[in-house]
Amino acid sequence: xxxxxxxxxxxxxxxxxxxxxxxxxxxxxxxxxxxxxxxxxxxxxxxxxxxxxxxxxxxxxxxxxxxxxxxxxxxxxxxxxxxxxxxxxxxxxxxxxxxxxxxxxxxxxxxxxxxxxxxxxxxxxxxxxxxxxxxxxxxxxxxxxxxxxxxxxxxxx
Length: 157
Hints:
Layout lengths: L13 H25 L16 H17 L4 H18 L1 H22 L15 H24 L2
């Protein structure tokens, strides 16, 4: 693989496009799902957190897959990619999901207090993390995205 130190080369690599494709696929699924449910097109889903599937998981797994397929599964880059993916997925299903649950509880407390007193109606964002299933689906989407991009990058005429 030819390398180039220019900034524009970054956008020509299969690793960038694999990660981007994984993220876009997951966020597009969220947008489509919301469109079907609400009959309203909301492009905010392209930058939203939480929900089905996990775009974070999809992105990092697509990148790790692309690195593994091009550099070898035993390469330092591939191992770092999969470690990064593991930490990201653990965080999405663990810490960020717990923060979302805490936000739900705090919002209920604020609702109760608002009935009794004059408080701000500002609510905390509750959809921050993911269930394990949402992370798993994101992981599968990412692996498949990475495989498709690498196949298209190297095997198209």
